[in-house]
Design goal:
The chain has about 200 residues and is α+β, with helices and mostly antiparallel strands. It contains 3 helices and 6 strands; from the N terminus they run αααββββββ. It has one domain. A 4-stranded antiparallel sheet has the order 3-1-4-5, with helices on one face.
Length: about 200
């Protein structure tokens, strides 16, 4: 009596093993997370490149406007224009604006001169230096903050930080936020005589 029952049970087991119903659903459940991560990461990379392209374009345009004679009174309007364009494609973005001005292009990114007392090639506290930007401390970039004046060279930089489109990708190593920068360097119109820049010797 037990043998037929065993055979029936064995047949049921075999039928269950060979039954393909529901296999597609199981396979999809296993591969869907990977698929979603790939799609999410691809969309975020595409969005990053798009934001970077738009930022570069609008910063270049803003830089050209900044170089005009009216820039001294329209910097806020120029920054607002950049913010408006970026917020159209990244609504939660935070923007930071920086303007540094120099006497000419050769001074961009150049550190202030200092007396290398110990000969190690780097500035150390208590060493004398020439304060070119008037802030009372040694800087590795002698540029002054702001738009500057006639015939000055201006480095206009905009930094944009915005959250990732899909937070779940952070679990797979994608950052929760992206930060991109764009800089344009232009020369102010020579609508007046350029101011002469002189440094002050400072010995802390």
């Amino acid at each position: 009596m037990r043998l037929p029952s065993a055979r029936r049970a064995l047949r049921k087991v075999r039928a269950l093993i060979t039954d393909g119903r529901g296999a597609a659903a199981v396979e999809f459940a296993m591969t869907a997370p990977i698929l979603f991560v790939i799609i999410g990461a691809s969309l975020q990379f595409a969005h990053l490149f798009y934001v970077r392209s738009v930022l570069t374009s609008v910063v270049n345009a803003a830089g050209r406007n900044s170089a005009l004679q009216s820039a001294a009174t329209s910097q806020t309007a120029i920054d607002t224009r950049v913010s408006t364009v970026i917020h159209e494609i990244a609504p939660k973005a935070t923007l930071t604006f920086t303007r540094r001005n120099y006497a000419d292009f050769s001074k961009i990114g150049v550190p202030e001169d200092f007396t290398d007392t110990n000969g190690n090639g780097v500035y150390d506290p208590k060493e004398c230096f020439v304060d070119m930007n008037g802030n009372g401390q040694w800087d590795d970039d002698m540029g002054k903050t702001g738009q500057g004046g006639a015939d000055d060279v201006v480095a206009y930089t905009v930094s944009v930080t915005y959250p990732a489109l899909f937070g779940f990708t952070h679990a797979f190593g994608y950052p929760l936020s992206q930060t991109i920068n764009a800089t344009t360097i232009l020369k102010n119109q020579p609508y007046a005589t350029q101011s002469t820049r002189t440094g002050v010797q400072v010995c802390p």
